[in-house]
Write a structure and sequence with these properties.
Blueprint lengths: L15 H17 L5 H16 L7 E5 L10 H9 L3 H4 L2 E4 L2 E5 L5 E9 L2 E10 L33 E2 L9 E4 L3 E2 L3 H7 L15 H9 L13 H11 L4
Parallel strand pairs: 1-5, 1-7, 4-6
Antiparallel strand pairs: 2-3, 3-4, 4-5, 7-8
């Protein structure tokens, strides 16, 4: 195990160009880890470089399920930084299911997430905030019972986890969607998704019209009638829409 030591600050050289370069680097590192000090930020950055050298592409990027509000998640900014810095030990990560991991937000709350890979990058898809250890109420842990965390060994490093491949993921978006699988809209699809109804969507087979429509329906209050001339599409759309229920 490699131990990290943060060196004490020393006076910068008198060269103005060097001072400006160091100041820019310092600001960039602190911006990446805003909840901790400058010296500890450097330690996180160096740890990320170590994981890159070992073959695990870093920094990882946290993307949220679109129905998850980060404002309601305790200590989310700090936890996001720990996960993106691959500090699974400080995040107290444990595996609780198939491609399902939990991180310790505080004494009572946990963040449930999955790991996926797209184009040689690893992404952390945050799924759910589990309040008060209520794993039995999770939409993703279909156990129907309680989960004893004390019997689950910690996952100290991300290289011990197996990230599943994704056919497509738009890294420019901060959120993803879920039907029967992970849905990530490309820029054109996202532009359509953000349009206020009513609207007409025209596209070829496989262009994402159904997924867009179903995801848009979730945002409409009250009851929504989905009409199609295809009995097959009625059955498929129903299964997709209620896949997590």
């Amino acid at each position: 195990m490699m131990h990290w030591r943060v060196l004490k600050s020393r006076p910068f050289p008198s060269s103005r160009a060097v001072r400006d370069s160091v100041a820019t680097l310092r600001a960039s590192v602190v911006a990446a880890f805003p909840w901790i000090g400058w010296q500890q930020s450097v330690a996180y950055a160096m740890r990320s470089l170590l994981w890159t050298a070992r073959g695990f592409v870093l920094p990882m990027h946290v993307i949220l399920y679109n129905q998850l509000n980060p404002q309601t998640i305790p200590n989310f900014p700090k936890m996001k930084g720990l996960l993106e810095a691959s500090d699974f030990r400080s995040a107290d990560v444990k595996k609780v299911g198939h491609n399902l991991y939990r991180a310790r937000l505080d004494k009572s709350n946990r963040l449930l997430f999955s790991l996926y890979r797209y184009q040689n990058h690893t992404y952390i898809l945050a799924l759910e905030c589990i309040a008060h250890h209520a794993y039995d109420k999770s939409r993703f842990l279909r156990r129907g019972g309680t989960l004893d965390e004390s019997n689950i060994p910690p996952l100290d490093t991300p290289d011990r986890a197996e990230a599943e491949p994704l056919a497509y993921l738009n890294p420019q978006l901060s959120t993803f969607h879920l039907l029967n699988k992970v849905i990530s809209f490309d820029d054109a699809q996202q532009a359509v998704y953000t349009l206020p109804p009513p609207c007409i969507v025209i596209g070829s087979a496989g262009s994402g019209k159904t997924a867009l429509t179903l995801e848009k329906m979730k945002e409409v209050p009250g009851e929504v009638l989905y009409v199609t001339r295809s009995p097959y599409l009625v059955h498929t759309a129903r299964n997709l829409y209620y896949a997590l229920d």
